[in-house]
Amino acid sequence: MSSTTAAPNNGMAGKLGTWLMIIATVVLAFVICVELINILFYDPWSDEKFLFKLSGSLSGVEIGPLTYLMFGSLAVALMMGLPLAFVTGGLGVMFIYLVGDAMMLNIVPGRIFPLMANPDIAAIPLFIFMASMLERAGLIEEMFSVVYKWMGGISGGLAAATIVASTILAAMVGVIGAAVVTMGIIALPAMLKRHYDHKIAIGSIMAGGTLGILIPPSILAILYAVVAQQSVGELYLGSLMPGLLLSGLYLTYVLVRSWLNPKLGPPIPVEDRISLKEKLKLLGNLIAPLALVGLVLGLLFGGIATPVEAAGIGSFGAIIVAMMHKKFSIAGLREASVTTAKASAMVLWIMFGASVFVGFYILQGGQQFVTDAILGTGMSAYGILFLLMVLLVVLGMFLDWVGILLLAVPIFIPIVKALEFPGLFGFPPVAGDDVVLWFGVLYLVNMQMSFLSPPFGYALFYIRGVCPPEISMGTIFKSSLVFLAIQAFGLFMCVLIPGIVTWLPGLVYG
Fold first, then answer.
1. What is the largest CA-CA distance in the chain?
2. Residue of 4 and 414 predicted with greater confidence
3. CA separation (Å) from 436 to 69, 225, 439, 484?
């Protein structure tokens, strides 16, 4: 009886939803028609109108209510599953029309063209192409195989090999999804076959895969440098030490846990191990890709080449490396080019849309409103920094990393610039010139945490796609928690000891 009753109820709900969609579409079409008539046949500077006029209808709204309207609309649209790029751009134009006038539409080209003209943006597709070519050349599998045979003989060796390989991969790729999925396909079956603890196996892949956010050539670091008007080379140098620090912390955790309880990470059998001579011979497979990474980063860090020039050399070098390993093909080149075009288009459209949305909000006084609200809390500089970090983690659970960068960072940077950080527990302070660089690296570490944060961290769903069915989503969530705690500790160390971030850029650039 209950199922019979439920069926008509479901049918009624479906019909009601359909009718609501039809009514909403008709109302929207009617409003658009009225506005088109107003635009085409009535003077926009006069009070004449056909039926009604929405242009400038919200011009008297204060910045406080406007903040709730704009970001509330953004949250509702994203929860409906609409793409971030078109939601931010569409809402930005809509609010420009509702709040401002025809002249204010100049914000759209005024925000987009400077981004299009920024030379550092060209490095993004080139680094993505470099990563795609190296991936299709099978070099990632070769790299894991070498590290696996070197470290597999110790307890937890496969998980440690995964982290080491992911660290090297981060220096090649700079994109998160590819690293997590690729290492999941290669390393996870090997660890499950050796009866590794699921939490250590999955956690090491996810945590290692997210190192691409920090370790150069990170795509996110380039975008932060563009938004914050920061040197890409300095940001790369500043993020290198924290990236290696986190990699070392992951390794320490995995090896110590497996040493204390070898059942969590059994070593490979003696008969499967190889001699030192064979291990040294295997290193030959890594010479070409590691030389390419060293060349690209050396040119960047040495100030010999700009990010775009280094990325161009890296892209060409990736093709040469693929040829040296006899893995180059026209089909592979085409696939890498298509992947690059899709990924670059996604990033650029989000940049354009979010830039219009935030640009209009800042023009309306949103920057000052948020700054006054946060500074008015009376918290110390480090209390405000903690609040910003928490907000970034929360945003990271729901938003794409590019969206967070373009929506939050332009508002957060002036707040951080207005603060002084005298140091904690007797540790050195952060010099005023280094605050934006230091905050940028803290932001990158924070984004790494957001990729692992349940319930919506991207890495959790990337690994879900390559896990066998018997591993539940609950197990994946639990796997992330320890490594999240390690990342939080690494973030705390960067706050406590700013020199972890600022020492290397200061050494190189003075």
1. 88
2. 414
3. 30, 10, 5, 24
Please give the C-alpha separations between residue 43 and each of 36, 47, 53, 431, in angstroms, as whole numbers: 12, 8, 11, 55
| For helices 198-209 and 435-452, angle between their N-to-C axes, nearest 10 degrees | 140
How far apart CA 135 and CA 143 sit, in angstroms, is: 11
Burial level of 8, CB count in 10 A (0-12/13-18/19+)? exposed
Rg (CA), the chain: 26
Confidence of residue 348 (pLDDT cuts 50, 70, 90): confident
Residues belonging to the chain? 510
Cβ-based neighbour number of residue 425 at 10 Å:
6
Residue 201 above 80 pLDDT?
A: yes
Element (H, E) at 80: none
pLDDT per residue over 16-45, tens digit each? 768 877 887 888 788 788 778 877 777 666
Which amino acid, residue 82?
A: L
Three-class SS state of 12: helix
Assess contact for 214 and 204: CB atoms under 8 A. no
Per residue in 52-104, pLDDT (tens digit) is: 667 767 777 888 888 888 888 888 887 777 777 788 888 888 888 788 766 67
**Distance of alpha carbon 279 from alpha carbon 151, whole angstroms:** 10
Phi, psi of 233 (to 5 degrees): -60, -45
Apex 390 CA angle, 386 and 395, nearest 5: 145
Q: Is the pTM of this model over 0.90?
A: no
> What are the tokens at 220?
């996110």
- Interior angle at CA 489, CA 227 and CA 244, nearest 5: 65
Cβ-Cβ contacts under 8 Å for 187 (sequence gap 6 or more): 144, 148, 158, 161, 162, 165, 201, 205
- Cβ count near 336 (within 10 Å): 24
The torsion defined by the Cα of 429, 433, 436 and 439, in degrees rounded to 10, comes to: -20
C-alpha 102 chain-centroid distance: 35
Q: What per-residue confidence (pLDDT) applies to 12?
A: 67
